[in-house]
C-alpha cells in the first residue's frame, strides 16, 4: 500500500468530518443529540489529524496498523461509510430519528475507540523496538567491559 493512498484516505475523512461538523454548526437550536454528534465528530477529527501527522512522519516504513486501517474493509472505509450515512440523514428533508442518532453515535464511538487502539498498537511496537535496542546495547557494553577487563589482566 503506498503512502499516498493512506494519506489521501485520511484527508478525505477529515474533509467529510469537516462537512458534517460545519452542517451541525449551522443548525440553529440544535438538539442535544446533534450536540452529542458534534462533540463526537470533533473528537474523531482530532484523532484523524493525529493519524495524518503520524502518516506524514513515516518515510519508507509503514506500520502494519496503518496498512490495515486503510484496507478495503478497514476502519477508514468503515468510518467513511458511517460519516456518509450520517451526512445523508442530516438533511432537513430526511431528518434523524431518535434511534438512528443513538445507533450512529455508537458506531462512531466504536470506530473512534478502534482508532485509539490502532495508535496504541504503534506505541507498543515502538516500545518493543526500543526494548530490543536497549538489550543490544547492554550486550555490547558487557562485551566491552569483558574486553577491558581482559586487557587489564594482560598488562
Q: What's this model, at a glance?
A:
By secondary structure, this protein is mostly helical. It has helices spanning 3-26, 32-57, 64-69, 75-89, 98-154.
Describe the structure.
With 155 residues, this protein is mostly helical. Helix content is 83%, strand content 0%. The longest helix is centred in the C-terminal third of the chain and has 57 residues, at 98-154. The radius of gyration is 24 Å and the shape is rod-shaped.
Strand content: under 5%
Report the uncertain regions.
none
Number of DSSP strands?
Answer: 0
C-alpha Rg, in Å? 24 Å
Q: Report the total helices.
A: 5
Q: What is the H-and-E element order?
A: HHHHH
The major beta sheet can be summarized as: none
What is the residue-mean pLDDT, rounded to a whole number? 79
Topology:
Layout lengths: L2 H24 L5 H26 L6 H6 L5 H15 L8 H57 L1
Helix pairs in contact: 1-2, 1-4, 2-5, 4-5
